[in-house]
Design a protein that fits this description.
- This protein is α+β, with helices and mostly antiparallel strands and 455 residues long.
- Helix content is 38%, strand content 19%.
- The chain is built from 13 helices and 25 strands.
- Strands 15-19-16-23-20 form a five-stranded mixed β-sheet, with no helix packed on it. A four-stranded antiparallel β-sheet has the order 2-11-8-9. It has a four-stranded mixed β-sheet with strand order 6-3-10-7, with no helix packed on it.
Length: 455
Amino acid sequence: MLEEIQKEKAKLVKEGKLKKEKTLPEITEDEIPFDIPESWCWCRLGEICTIKGGKRLPMGSSFSENVTNHVYIRVSDMKNNTISLDDLHYISDEVYEKIKNYIITTDDIYMTIVGATIGKCGIIPDCLNNMNLTENAARIIPFLVDKHYLLMCLTTDFCQTQFIEKTKQVGVQKMALTRFSNSILPLPPLEEQKRIVAAIEKFMPLIEEYGKKETELKAFNEQIGLLTKKAILQEAVQGKLVPQIAAEGNAKDLLEEIRRSRHSELVSESKSKAKKEKTLPEITEDEIPFDIPESWCWCRLGEIVQLTSGQDLQPEMYNSSQKGIPYITGASNFNNGNVIINRWTETPKSVAIKDDLLLTCKGTVGEMAFLKEKKVHIARQVMSIRSSEKISLGYVKIYLTTQIENLKSKAKSMIPGIAREDVISSLFPLPPLAEQKRIVGAIEKLLPLCEKLGS
């Protein structure tokens, strides 16, 4: 069959219907990637077809504002292995006369030859037969080869990888047609090509349906993972994740101890500061959202942690030369529980220290990370949460994860944000310290399983 194609091309060259093409190099053993049946053979793309380029609009020309008989097919029209009819552009008779030799027919295959779209292939619909082709695509004219088989072959990863590699070799955004010609592909006899096409067309609807179901299943798994994670966290803050142990004491005694300790610290610092300490409102029965174990108690978050709000700095007050201490500006500094640093300041105002829990409170709300740096300045988009050794910040983080949407709903601004007052006044289900730590340990084991469930 390949010999017949070569004879046919030689005949057309002799008749002046086809330009003589450069002889393509022999295919070496090193180029052949896999075995094929004995009745097949390896060939180069340029051996079984002629590849011609399209043509750009002549200098000074533009598309016609009216519908004409001449469609100019652009790369943006090339979708789903055909041509989209949604936004066709037309050229006038005058422009057509200048580029009338650069057309594409329904017997051909188009292939894009520019940038990120290189290698996109398809067939021309009947209504666009003999229309003009952009210079950013090539016209592939098959000889004695089933065009549908050739299209399937060209769209395989095997061929597409060759096109990408050939583009990398030249390092340019536009691919020379001769490089496409050198690509290799497996060639079956013509009747087998047709049988292959028929088989693919028969199974393609099933493959597409399988793909759709696979996408749905992936989305379902992701949803299951998220819902399971949410349920586990909720169980954790309701005292249902780990058992209570009487020997660990009760949270009411822990809360009183924290209150006495904080008051003593304030008094030792300054009596006036102790007086200025804002008293949080008493918790009413109507506020309590769910039951908790007897050894737990309800409190307000501000009773057990110290919250520092961030402040923005003027541009002249920070730098990128690592002078001073890191400056944490917002969600862009958070990545998978880690803090990314790209700014520094020598004039810090709102300071967070090592092991503080950072919480984004403006813009992208709810990102959290434990600070590993010795000291940083935090911007207005960030809050710093600090606690004594009597409270596990890991447990505080678990609680806040369950409360982010609730806190967001209280935002009074059009810009997403949570207020300091809403955070410190929010209800907090407090377990004994040992149980807090056991809850954190259980969550650290369970959440990775949720991630796997959703993958």
